[in-house]
């Protein structure tokens, strides 16, 4: 998402509120995070690792199982961390932290993993600068993020209704690639996966976004309640996208691996 428009406190509060409902609706999140895990080099063995924007801790646990090591779970939302901690014993610790200002020593981690969290950072370059700092030479960060085209149907439908920004902004792929190229890593890879979910009704999508804590937090969103007339207009506009499987919601997911050089 783009720099000037994200309010971190609002992001933290929204995800904290969603902690108890997130796992029930996070099917896509599971799927793309698992794809990211599968992209890690098969031979990779690490002892010091962290999960940035760990949310309810699903992938923190998966990393713990994969590497047999304690995993540090970091998230900006205290509510998410409380929920993750309450899930029961796992040899992990949970710390409230902002991915753009990590409370970790330089050269202290061999692997950073982050699934669908860094698109919430106002400044992705700063988050990658922090990743580069805390990674040991030869370490890597595997993360995924959403790029332009994500929730395009919802954006277009709102555009037809009132022209306001009701959907989070996601950066164009070319901009992301430029940021990756400029981030100071020795090697990088970025592949985009397209996922299209289908819903019988628009309310299925909007309720899901709310339960995930991922509804619109960009500046420019109109305040106040959504009036019935506007909702009817939105529903009608979204109906124009209907497919045999239902109302589509497209996600463009960039899967990225960055390697820190031995000399860095
Ligand atoms: C969509 S959830 C993903 C959670 C988990 N990684 C998963 O795949 O289930 C995004 C998470 O990123 C966290 N987050 C957002 N901005 C952050 C930031 N600047 N620093 C750390 N975490 C952040 C949110 O609080 C939320 O828990």
Automatic annotation (TrEMBL):
Cross-referenced Gene3D superfamilies: Vaccinia Virus protein VP39
InterPro entries: BioC (IPR011814), Malonyl-ACP_OMT (IPR050602), Methyltransf_11 (IPR013216), SAM-dependent_MTases_sf (IPR029063)
Pathway: Cofactor biosynthesis; biotin biosynthesis
Catalytic activity: malonyl-[ACP] + S-adenosyl-L-methionine = malonyl-[ACP] methyl ester + S-adenosyl-L-homocysteine
Record's keyword terms, sorted: Biotin biosynthesis, Methyltransferase, S-adenosyl-L-methionine, Transferase
Example GO BP: biotin biosynthetic process
Top EC category: transferase
MF annotations from Gene Ontology: carboxyl-O-methyltransferase activity; malonyl-CoA methyltransferase activity; S-adenosylmethionine-dependent methyltransferase activity
Pfam families cross-referenced by the UniProt entry: Methyltransf_11 (PF08241)
All copies of domain Methyltransferase type, residue ranges: 51-143
EC number: 2.1.1.197
HAMAP family listed in its UniProt record: BioC
Primary role: Converts the free carboxyl group of a malonyl-thioester to its methyl ester by transfer of a methyl group from S-adenosyl-L-methionine (SAM). It allows to synthesize pimeloyl-ACP via the fatty acid synthetic pathway.
Family indicated by similarity: Belongs to the methyltransferase superfamily.
Name of this protein: Malonyl-[acyl-carrier protein] O-methyltransferase
Origin species: Halopseudomonas aestusnigri
Gene from which this protein is expressed: bioC
């Amino acid at each position: 998402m783009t720099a000037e428009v994200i309010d971190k406190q609002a992001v933290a509060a929204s995800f904290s509120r969603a902690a108890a409902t997130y796992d029930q609706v996070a099917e896509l999140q599971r799927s793309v995070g698992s794809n990211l895990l599968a992209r890690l080099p098969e031979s990779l063995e690490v002892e010091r690792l962290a999960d940035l924007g760990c949310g309810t801790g699903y992938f923190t646990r998966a990393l713990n199982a994969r590497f047999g090591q304690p995993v540090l779970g970091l998230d900006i939302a205290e509510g998410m961390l409380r929920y993750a901690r309450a899930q029961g014993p796992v040899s992990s610790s949970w710390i409230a932290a902002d991915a753009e200002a990590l409370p970790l020593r330089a050269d202290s981690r061999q692997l950073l993993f982050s699934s669908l969290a860094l698109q919430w950072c106002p400044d992705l370059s700063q988050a990658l600068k922090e990743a580069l700092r805390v990674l040991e030479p030869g370490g890597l960060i595997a993360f995924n993020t959403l790029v332009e085209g994500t929730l395009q149907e919802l954006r277009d439908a709102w555009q037809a209704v009132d022209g306001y920004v009701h959907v989070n902004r996601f950066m164009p792929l070319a901009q992301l690639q430029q940021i990756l190229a400029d981030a100071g890593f020795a090697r990088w890879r970025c592949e985009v996966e397209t996922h299209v979910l289908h819903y019988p009704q628009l309310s299925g999508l909007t309720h899901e976004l709310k339960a995930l804590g991922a509804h619109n937090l960009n500046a420019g969103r109109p305040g106040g309640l959504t009036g019935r007339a506007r909702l009817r207009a939105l529903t009608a506009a979204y109906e124009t996208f209907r497919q045999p499987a239902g109302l589509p919601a497209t996600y463009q997911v960039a899967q990225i691996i960055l390697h820190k050089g031995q000399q860095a």
